[in-house]
Amino acid sequence: MTRAISLHSVSKVYGRATRAVDRFSLDIDPGEFVVLLGPSGCGKSTVLRMIAGLEDITEGELLLDGERSNHMPPRERGMAMVFQNFALYPSMTNRDNIGFPLRLENPRQDSSERVEATARMLGIENVLDRYPSQLSGGERQRVAMGRAISRRPSAFLMDEPLSNLDAKLRNHLRAEIAQLTADLGVTTVYVTHDQAEAMSLGDRVAVMRGGVLQQVSSPREVYALPRNVFVAAFIGTPRINLLQAVVYAPLQGRMSIDLGRQRLPLPEPLSPDHQLLRIQQGRQIIVGLRSEAARIAPASQARPGEVALSGIVEHMEYQGHEALVHLNTGSRPAVVPDLESPRPRTAPRRRRGGPGVLERLRERAAAHVPGHVSGPVVVLDEPEADASATYTPDRPAITASDLVVRTGPDMRLRTGAQVPLLVDLAHLYVFDHYGRRICPAPMDMPGLDM
Asked: For this protein, what is any one GO molecular function term (predicted)?
């Protein structure tokens, strides 16, 4: 029997100050495969261990099949955990390792038939009588998974099970895990910092940062509609291009986005998303462009919705099936602080005496919005001033590349050459100065008729 798992405003606090997980809420349906994704130290393994019962819950509640289970002992939860380091007994054969939890449950029952069936499922029946030290890393991970499968658990909890394996074996076992969990139909919670695993395995991906849930969506939606700058930058290879910009919306004339040396003119008539940018007039914003949202081509080849830019080639990365061209467009890159670390260095400034009345009302209203993600909004730090990286009329270029464009492998460009670019505005992201996505407009944004 598979299991439904619900976490309602769950927090984990160590000592007096260290809040590893902060008001984490997530509902997992029976048979669903959910991936907890985020940088090292963001609290994803702590969430997994609270589900397993290996960590006490400081605040909030855990529901298993609708019943409060905060203090239920781990052995009564009917879950099986697969660890990063295999956790096999070196003095036992692989057969005994797989059958060990069965002997604990019922010492008198003969478990050999179930062990053999599990080994056949994983393709390791020929190594059952060997010891873990005689196996490769991939075989040891299969034995560890076999020990979990043999119990016929109600849920699988996997804590970065492939991180100790080489890339080729990791890809192979990733496909096996996807097939295996689909065949068994068991609820699975999978922890990883590898976005490739998350995007290929999960029915839904829960992105975490600093103990706070940032977004929960399908892999396709997390990539196409990131909720904030952190999610946009964490998901996608190569990393999304983030540029500081200002909206230019004159009363007469065409609306555009000022990137510093160049402007992106918005097509007329304006789309509903672009019309919303008018209220950002004169404000600092962040423009996000995936590498596939721009292409190297002259303005004469522009398709509907594409606008022209230009850039200077800094260098090229040949990837075999494609090439990545690093360009300098004279724009100022936006920096997401501590992207690979669990917590930002600085938090939003608050007035003395706590948040104001307006902020408290906004938070209270947001708590009732379906799909609202609680927690601090990602804040962008201002990059340190660098005299060599500023643009003035006397200095025509910024030295660092600010835009990466994906091209075909046969594209040959000379370093220092100026090339024409076409940007597809249909794939343009705009974030406010706090890092929240404002274009495309959030789906839960209230309309003007409310």
From this structure: ATP binding
CA nearest to 165, candidates 131, 138, 192, 147: 138
Out of 224, 257, 292, a domain closes at 224
Query: How many other CB atoms sit within 10 Å of the CB of residue 281?
Result: 12
Map tokens 């029952």 to a residue.
Answer: 109
DSSP tag of 321: S
Give Cα separations from 110 to 105, 118, 290, 307, 398 (angstroms). Answer: 11, 14, 56, 71, 72
Same domain, 242 and 195: no
Q: Is position 365 within any domain?
A: no
What residues make up the domain containing 219? 5-224
In a domain, 283, yes or no: yes
CATH number at residue 137: 3.40.50.300
- The domain tally of the chain equals 2
Domain shared by 194 and 266, yes or no:
no
The answer for 37, left when phi > 0, alpha when psi is -120 to 50, beta otherwise, is beta
What are the pLDDT tens digits along the chain (450 aa)?
Answer: 578 999 999 999 998 778 899 999 999 999 999 999 999 889 999 999 999 999 999 999 999 999 999 999 998 998 998 888 878 889 999 999 998 888 888 888 888 888 998 888 888 889 999 999 998 888 888 898 888 888 888 999 999 988 878 888 888 888 888 888 888 899 999 999 999 999 999 999 999 998 999 999 999 999 999 999 999 999 998 999 999 999 998 888 888 999 989 999 998 888 888 888 888 888 889 999 999 999 999 999 999 989 999 999 999 999 999 999 999 999 999 887 656 555 544 444 444 555 555 555 554 444 444 334 434 344 444 444 443 333 333 433 444 789 999 999 999 899 999 999 999 998 999 998 888 999 998 765 544 443
| Structural domain ending residue among the three candidates 224, 253, 269 | 224
pTM beyond cutoff 0.70: yes
